[in-house]
Each structure stands twice: as structure tokens, then as C-alpha cells.
Here is the input.
Amino acid sequence: EKSAFEILDQALVHKNKIVAVGLDSSELDHPPRKFERVFKKAIEKGFLTVAHAGEEGPPEYIWEALNLLKVKRIDHGVQCFHDKKLVQKLRDEQIPLTVCPLSNIKLRVFNKLEEHNLKKMLNKELMVMINSDDPAYFGGYINQNFIECQATLNLSMKEVKDLIVNSFKSSFLKEEKKREWISKL
Here is the structure.
């Protein structure tokens, strides 16, 4: 928490260039609740908030990120299927989930891409999108994530388009800009 407050204070100096702050890195033994006071201050200072939750950690971490950290987006969230009420909330409220399939494989969240639940997330009408998650470290920039997921998970062109549309809907762009980009698709 102490180092998170220090980083938040450093970010405040550049508030005019920063839209959101987030929680990232390994979730193991690091529940979101450890950072509740930091996120409260971030929100008070006008930042949007996002958090890694439900990648390596359990669904409870997603609940904590939503209820305690008041995040606008969950980075990952692939463990949500272990909690039916959580899946329902994610679908009903269209809470964005930034899924990073190739890094999920590197971290052994799934043993192979064929086992990934991205398509299941789409089928449940979750606000899911594909992202890359530190591509220099994990390999696979966003285009490679799309290419491999489309081929391996047999995603239709409609599903690929839905993933792209979801990314614009979930972005922190102004609504007018979101509509403009989505109409180009």
C-alpha cells in the first residue's frame, strides 16, 4: 500500500495526462482489498480505476475490485465462471473484461489456447475484448492475440467484430469518438 500511495502521488503531478490508474502484476496473495484506501484517494482525485482481477486470483478478487476499488474495468476476469452470480453481474452491467489469451497461456492460467474460455465469455454476452498484456514479456502483440484466437477458437467474423466493438465501447474515449470508431467498423 505504501509504495502504491507513492506512485499515486507521482501520477498526480501529471494528472492532466493520465486518465486512469490500475492495479496490476501477480494476483497471488495480493487481493485487491489491500489497495482499497489507495483507490479511494485515486477516485477522489478524479482518476478512473481499473484492476487486474480473476486471472490467477479467484472470483472473489473480481468482487473486491468492483465493490471495494470501484473499478470501471476488470483486466482479465477469466476466473469469473467459478461464480454464477458474478457472471450474471458482469453480463447485466456490461462490465468490461480485458482478456489477454496469449499471456494467460504463458502464465498457465490455461494450459493451451484451445482451453481458453474467451469464446464462452462471448457466448455469455460478457463485455469481453482481446488485449496483449506486456507483449515484450509474454509475447504476442494484440494482432497476434487476435490471429491465434480466431484460428484456434474458431471465432466467426461476427465474434471478432464484437471483440473489437467491445474494446471501443469499453475505452475511456468520449462517447462521440466511440460511436465514430464503431461506425467505421
